[in-house]
Amino acid sequence: MSIPVPLNRQGYNMASAMPDLNVNLHLQGSQRRPEPAEIARDRSLQNTKGKYNIRGTSDTKIRAKLAWKDLTGRKPKSYSETRWWSKWEVYKQLLEQFGDVPRFLQEAATEKIAPNIVRQLQDLLSDPESLVNLKLELAVTIDVGEHFVKATYFLEGDGPLVFSCYEKLKAVAEACQAPYFPNVRAVVAAIVNEDPNQRAAALEQRAKACVQPAIQWFLRKFNVDLYDAVTAFKAARVMCPVTVGWLRPTQASVEALRIFPFLDNDATFDGLVRELPQYITATQDVPIECEGRKVEWWKVHEERLPNWSSAVKKVLVVQPSSAAAERVFSLLSVSFHEQQENALSDYLQANTNGF
């Protein structure tokens, strides 16, 4: 049997008009009747924003992203101050979709999205010399930056990074010493095709000159300023059960591990040298691909190679970056806000005592 819904004198559904007592007070407050001034402001925004009408403090940025995605079909990359390489990702997308920029600026001007910035960009693109320089700088930044970004993806990850850290750094150093510029060559070819008066060799030289100071800075860091740290990671390669096969370590290779202070003693050194033949034999044809499996390999061979296993445990604590630790602190800061600082201390102390 259905219960009739009470109606008021005008015939409206009284049940639907009754307030929901379970609604959060904050939501009730946000549903108040807008003031006349707010209505006028919203109408003004509607008239100026057009089809990208979005309210909020980051209104201009959101509208620009919506316009870009609407025109190009691709969501624009975002820059984050905590991810320096994200700026490179933005540059890369800009280079890939550079042909869409004039059309986007025209749409942004029509929709009154950041008009001052749009005018500046349009003036920049309308100047032939500035446009050429912009294309060259974008291309060379992508070519050189790609090696750094790939290394960063790995070195700011989790896991036993010490095994492969040196190889990643060495790859960047080699790329800087003998750089390859595919995007620069493609951009130069397009520029010369549009303007035969341009000289390809001069354009390439101009592009390379933009990044030469950065390359020299990195090589100085790699070979001079961070020499001890790089040498330590180079010595740690002998502890990787995959690379030890082609490294063919000798007593001198083991001696290089003394760069780690906690391994710089005769007892540890003698134990490693004594177990070296068994270690080399055990690592023949090891089918390991991911970094985590390397740690598992050492766990399996802990009893067979006690001295090496003990040394590996200590070296694994050495990380090439603090990214993993920073992620832990970020997670804790999200889980425990300012009013829960004492709870965080108690939680950490309890877990520490458990160990």
From TrEMBL:
InterPro entries: HATC_C_dom, RNaseH-like_sf. GO terms for molecular function: protein dimerization activity. Residues 277-339 form the HAT C-terminal dimerisation domain. It comes from the Eukaryota. This is HAT C-terminal dimerisation domain-containing protein.
